[in-house]
Amino acid sequence: LIPGLLAAVAGCGGGGSQTAQSTTTAGGIKERVIKAGIGLNEDHPEGQGLKKFKEIVEQKSGGKLKVQNYYAAQLGDDQKMTEALKGGLQEITVPSTSPLVGTVKEFGIFDFPFLFNNEKEADAVLDGPIGKKILDKLPEHGLIGLGYWENGFRNLTNSKHPVAKMEDFQGLKIRTMQNTVHLDAFKALGANPTPMAFSEVYNALESKTVDGQENPLATIESNKFYEVQPYLSLTNHVYTPFAFLVSKKFWDQLSDEEKKILQDAAVEAGKYERQLNREQNQKSLDNLKAKNMKINEVSNEEKARIQAAVKPVIDQYAKKFGEDLVKEMNDQLKQIRSQ
Ligand code: TK8
Of 19, 223, 259, 304, which one has the fewest beta carbons inside 10 Å? Predict the structure, then answer.
C-alpha cells in the first residue's frame, strides 16, 4: 500500500469541513515525530525489525506518525535510553531485558541459565501470562511494554583458549551485561566477570581489558567481535529477550487509534524480527567459521556440570524475584515439555 493513498482515503473518511480537517482527517492521528533507538546495528535482525516497525507505523498512520530510527547506541546504551524514556526525552527503545532488572527486578527470571531449551519455549512464556505480568509492572516506572522481541541464545567468545568444559571458565575475565544473575552465575563457574554497557565491549576486548564476552551469534558477527576474539564456544547458556518499550509520558498523550497503531506494529515487527533472528543464527555460524573463528561445541555432559554449578545462584534469585512467579514459569515449561 502507498502511504499517500492511505492518507487520502483516511482524509475522505474524516469528513467534509475544511476547518475540522487538521484534527480529524486521519481520525485522531496527529503529526508526531517518534525517536526510536537501539544498541545494535542496522544490519542486525533487531535493526531490521525496527525498520519494519517504522514502515508499518508510517503506513498505517498515513505518514503522520514519523519514526526516526537510531542504531548502534547512537542515543546511548540500553540503560541510558530506558532512563530517557522515563523522562520523556525519547519515545521508544528495545533493550535486552537483563539491564532492566534495576527497574523491574522480575525481568531477572529470564536470566536464569539454561531456562529455555528452545525458542518455542521462550515464545510461550514471554507471550503468555508470565511475560505479560512482568510488562504490567512497567507503567509505575514511566514505561509501557508492548511485547517481547528476540535477542536470543548467548554464546561465549574469548581471546585465551577454547572453552569446552567447566574448568575452562576458571579465571577468564568475561564482560557481562549489567545484571547480577549473570555476574553471580559466571562467578560460580570460577570466571572473573565484569559488568559493562554494550557499546564499550569491542574496545574492552580489543585492548584485552577483558578476555571474553557472550552474546548471540548475530551480534558476534554484526559487531565484528570475531576480529578480536579467536575462540567461540557454543554454550547457548541463556536466552535473552528484548522488551519493546515506549515512554509513558509520550504514550499518555496518544489517542486510542495512535496507541493501536504502535501496539500492532510492535507485535507485527516483532514476529518479523524473531523470524529473521532465527534464520540468521545458522548464517552467522557459517560466516564466523569463514572468518576463522575456532568454534567448539559443549557436550551435554559438561552443560549438566555447568548447570549444577549455577543452580545455587538460580535458587537464591528465585527467592528474590518471587518464588510463586518462578514456580508458575517452571510449571508452564513442564507442561510444554510434556506435550
Ligand atoms: C544491545 C544489547 C546487547 C546485549 C548485551 O543494546 O548488552 O550484550 O546482548 O545486545 O542489548
Answer: 19
